[in-house]
Amino acid sequence: MTGKSSGDLNHRHTHLVLKYAVVSRLILISLILLWRSLLSPYDTSASINPSCLSGSDSGSASVYFPRLASAIEDSIVWDSVYFVRIAQCGYEYEQTYAFLPLLPICISLLSGTVFAPLIPFIGQRAVLGLSGYVLNNFAFVLAAFYLYRLSVIILKDSEVALRASILFCLNPASIFYSSIYTESMYALCSIGGLYFLMRGSNNFATIWLALSGFARSNGVLNAGYICFQTMHRSYEAAFVRKHACAALLVLISGALRSLFIVFPFIAFQAYGYFNMCVGGTSDEMRPWCKARLPLLYNYIQSHYWGVGFLRYFQVKQIPNFVLASPILSLAFCTIIHYVKLWPEVFVSLGFRASSPNKELAASSIPLERSAGPKSVGFSVENRSDAGQGNSLRRRKPAVGEENYVIQPSEDEATENRGFKPVTIVPFILHLVFMVATAFFVMHVQVSTRFLSASPPLYWFGSYVMASHCLSKRWGYIIWTYCAAYILLGSLLFSNFYPFT
Asked: GO terms for biological process (predicted)?
């Protein structure tokens, strides 16, 4: 496949991904409107909106279209109430600090600028809700776009990337990506950041990944990708090129970028401490203010939501474990699949390339014949670097390293050009940590949306749906699972019934 034809194919696939993303959001919104019109909400308290404690809101003003305003406000349910309230009134109560500020800030900015002329017609709170819906659905479309581009870079196969992106567009947590939740913003910032990281645009990547930590607390884990990259680049500088100063600079740069990613979350904790603890007497302080390391987020999760290690392991929670079992099973299968493909790569954390036979015979990652990107974020030296333009120079294998360097034939090199199993390693390690956290620490039913932004799930799902080695029924099971959770989610969630 020539470079031009490959570029045309990627261009067509990009348009197709955007089309699926937009259509999937329209379907979700249509389902929400349908179920809301057919059923009565289980909890009708969504319309209750007391004035801000500061008294600065104008929610009580009359509007020209009260029925439309009421319909939008009534659709603000579950955690959406917190995000809209924060955007409207700021952080008024201790428990609201569990919700990080990126989404409320964006809602407030959009409602105060682009949608500000609508306030006289539907009111401030409805405009805030409308802004949240527009933001998240637009962010989802961009997240699908970046997932496709990231998948092409990692997998070197546009067809696999396309299937993975379409699966993401119809993922089982779709209802949250079209509601006023942080899933869309987090997916956009984390997947977009990883895309720029794989391209070698480290500054852009660092900013995007830092924003992911400003959207959700688990965004700080994305610093692990920077640490993984730094570990490999410093090793290459110190032990391959024998350049100690270069290795030190790599370590310092990696440390600063990792701190930059973690900083928004830490800054928000400091902001909460300043608002809740500073200025009060010792008797008035909350218990967490007196702790040696006063972490407001951990206290809120434990005190208000009962989050903690093994605290959810109760007989009465068995239905919630059943609800989360499909996504957890898919995650376990994903992890096992990739680790079994390249065990030596995972055991060595990518410092040893996979054996030639597995590298060339791995049918789970069909590889594109066209050349890969000019820069890949994680690099392991091997013969497949030819023509890739990687920043690391090619080198001869060190003594005793020959068994770990891929040396394919000319035809095989063309078929597998640019693909490196080491690029999969940090994604799987990240998924392992997320799965362990979801299963042992969090409310397990949240796993469906908590894991939904993890690219390996869609890469593995894409493989299952196209594999000739597996029965087609597994592909049907994945599609049925997605469709069922989309229908159930849009039905239950939008009407204030318990879901994930």
From this structure: GPI anchor biosynthetic process
pLDDT (tens digit per residue) in 172-187: 999 999 999 999 999 9
Exposed / middle / buried, residue 193 (Cβ in 10 Å: 0-12, 13-18, 19+): buried
> What phi, psi does 51 have (nearest 5°)?
-65, 155
- Cα–Cα distance for residue pair 244/238, rounded to 1 Å: 5
Amino acid of residue 452: S
- Residue 471's pLDDT is what? 73
CB 208, CB 189: distance < 8 Å: yes
Lowest mean pLDDT among 135-139, 154-158, 451-455: 154-158
Count of other CB atoms within 10 angstroms of residue 165: 29
pLDDT the model gives residue 45: 60
- The residues near 487 (Cβ < 8 Å, ≥ 6 apart) are 31
Judged by DSSP in three states, 209 sits in: helix
Q: Please, are residues 336 and 330 in contact by the beta-carbon 8 Å criterion? A: no
183 in Cβ contact with 173 (< 8 Å): yes
Q: How many CB atoms lie within 10 A of CB 416?
A: 20
**Chain position carrying tokens 């991904």:** 17
Q: Is the pLDDT of residue 158 over 50?
A: yes
Chain-centre distance for alpha carbon 253: 24
Q: What type of residue sits at position 445?
A: Q
At residue 77, φ and ψ (nearest 5 deg) are: -130, 165
Reading the block at residue 477, the tokens are: 């099971």
Closest to 490 (Cα-Cα) out of 187, 176, 181, 73: 176
CB 135 within 8 A of CB 164: no
Answer positive or negative: Cα dihedral of 267, 271, 272, 277.
positive
- For the chain, give the percent of residues with pLDDT over 70: 82
Instruction: Give 268: exposed, middle or buried? Use CB within 10 Å, 0-12, 13-18, 19+.
Output: buried
Q: Are 54 and 89 in contact (CB under 8 A)?
A: yes
Nearest C-alpha neighbor of 99 from the set 296, 287, 294, 324: 296
List Cα–Cα distances, 211 to 33, 108, 190, 342, 397, in angstroms.
31, 17, 8, 32, 39
163: Cβ–Cβ under 8 A, 6 or more apart, which residues? 461, 462, 465, 466
Residue that the structure tokens 């100690």 belong to: 244
CA distance 51 to 53: 6
